[in-house]
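Extended Data, panel c. Modelled sequence:
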Amino acid sequence: MNNLPSLKRAAMPLAALAALLAATVAYAQEAAPAAAPAPTLDTGNTAWMLTSTALVLMMTIPGLALFYAGMVRKKNLLATVMQSFAICCLVTVLWFVAGYSLAFSDGGSLNAYVGGFSKVLFQGITVSSLWAPGVANIPEFVFAMFQMTFAIITPALIAGAFAERMKFSALLLFSGLWLLVVYAPVAHWVWGGGFLGSAGVLDFAGGTVVHINAGVAGLVCALVLGKREGYGSVNMAPFNLVYAVIGAALLWVGWFGFNAGSELAADGLAGAAMVNTQVAAAAAGLAWMFTEWLVAKKPSVLGIISGVVAGLVAVTPASGFVNPTGAFVIGIAAGIICYFAAVKIKHALGYDDSLDAFGVHGIGGIVGALLTGVFADPAINALGKDASVLKQLYGIVFTIVWAAVATFVILYVVKALVGLRPSKQEEIEGLDVTQHGEVVQ
């Protein structure tokens, strides 16, 4: 009992030491940085991307289908609608089977040029798989579907160049081969980790991947197939411009998903891309209209809708890199330049680009890609600080060369297998009845 005070005195330093250790451990735990949380799905971004995907699909069916159908002759209306619809079905299946993997998976030693086969049949993608984890945080299924809608519209655009004169069997074979051989590699070059993206080529939503690619392919198709029967001597006026106006309006609305959706997020840059899209489209529509008014003495309905589409095309690569003033200038330039390309230069050179796939999409895409290098604004997108016209020209040249050469080869493969054109009599009678056994009454 007499030793109890001394034992207490001896225990006091030990208690103090224990308290000090506990405090030190607690401080260390507080001072240590918290582990970064695992990326989780962003519901806002996902909702916007689901909406954008639906908008871009609407651009092909019904948008492009009606736009093109309204500009052909009555005897080819159903065949033209069928082209867009069938391409939508065909590309959907091919994108699922192999196209997405070739565009957006790792190609190993060939990754600078093409993706691999690790995502064939969407292998390895689950409901938990995120695209751009830590950044966009959207489901990879949604990203793959969004990109599918781009893959769908691109070969459908090409069909405008050879409208009214390609066999349906040839269309299907050409579109399938072109998707895998031309579109998927170019998409990989720019967006999938390939050499053009690595070189600093800027293409926010598809100026090179979609429009230059499709426009150049369309020109090659027009040259290889030759002119429509009676071109230059037979009246080939559009059957129903109201259809074309409705189609152009659907394209315009859908383009907000095309451009603003390419941000992959519901944020300020998506808003800037949306504003730029509207400003450029309106400026181009007016620029084409007033140019035509001065040159041809009348502002046509076909002219203003063509001008709007030209502006939408040209602002596509620039939409997430320029400010609205830059978009305004791009729109004016596209409206004027594409008017002369589609109306004057085509006629002067004598090729039959039926619905001006090259004059609007090819030339408009080149104008927009080049001017992206001029007007890219780092205040809008930090990636714009290193933009240059030379880098943009580098991307344009590679896209043109590959699209032209590969399209030429594919056309001759298709010609050897099934032929390209119907007979002269079938073409004169119309593709609706000779290819599909149906007519518009």
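Residues 1-8, 24-29 have pLDDT under 50 and may be disordered. This feature is highlighted in the accompanying rendering.
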